[in-house]
Amino acid sequence: MKQQQLDDLAQEIIANNVCPELATQATQLVMGDGNPNADIVLIGEAPGKNEDLQGKPFVGAAGKFLDEMLRQAGLARSDVYITNIVKYRPPNNRDPLPAEKQEFWPYLLRQLEIIDPKFVITLGRHSGGYFIPDLHISHDHGHPRRVAYHGQEFMVVPLYHPAAALYNGGMRQTLIDDFIATAQLVR
Ligand code: URA
User: Fold this and answer.
1) Mean pLDDT, the chain, integer
2) What is 2-186's CATH topology?
3) 44 C-alpha to center of ligand 1: Å?
4) Is 62 close to ligand 1, i.e. is its CB under 6 Å away?
5) 111 lines ligand 1 (CB under 6 A)
6) What ligand 1 atom has the least distance to the C-alpha of 45?
7) Taking residues 62-67, what's their average pLDDT?
8) Is the pLDDT score of 41 beyond 90?
9) Please, which pLDDT band fits residue 126 given cuts at 50, 70 and 90?
10) Separation of CA 59 and ligand 1 centre (Å)
11) Residue 166 has pLDDT above 90, yes or no
């Protein structure tokens, strides 16, 4: 039922010609993956090369680390729902532009309305900054904040982006610790 609504929303994004320049260069729309009935939604930035080819978020190197974070917290992909703000791969993996994030933002909110999670975990400052405008990730990471959008309410927990941890061992442990603490809070 929720999956059908998410499929319909994906069709609507295509029909409404959202970010046409990204759409023409991308292989496909990467809507999301995991369990639409989950209490936790993880939100990254935009698909990369592997995600674009496979049609699923976080399946490349950053995704492998995300899987490890989930495993250490006693969770599997099937326990959470994973998506991105921008749902087409930006060319050459450049950062998504503010205008692109803005175009996708209402669809992300509708996606959250359908899933209705208790917790939204943002991965990186691009995603976190949209939910928490005054975000200072080095200070705020791992700290939940209550956020409300037209009648919807959930806790937002900003985390570092898993790709950042690939090159920085200290950040790797911070991310894992933040994620384990968040999973405990959800339970
Ligand atoms: N990085 C992201 O932000 N999202 C993905 O889906 C993959 C890598």
Assistant:
1) 95
2) Uracil-DNA Glycosylase, subunit E (3.40.470)
3) 5
4) yes
5) no
6) 3
7) 95
8) yes
9) confident
10) 8
11) no
Q: What is the largest CA-CA distance in the chain?
A: 44
CA of 186 to the centre of ligand 1 (A): 23
Q: How many CA atoms lie within 13 A of 37 on its CB side?
A: 1
Candidates 50, 56, 54, 52; CA nearest to 23 is 52
Nearest CA to ligand 1 atom 8: 58
Domain boundaries of the chain, sorted by first residue = 2-186
pLDDT category at 29 given cuts 50, 70, 90 is: very high
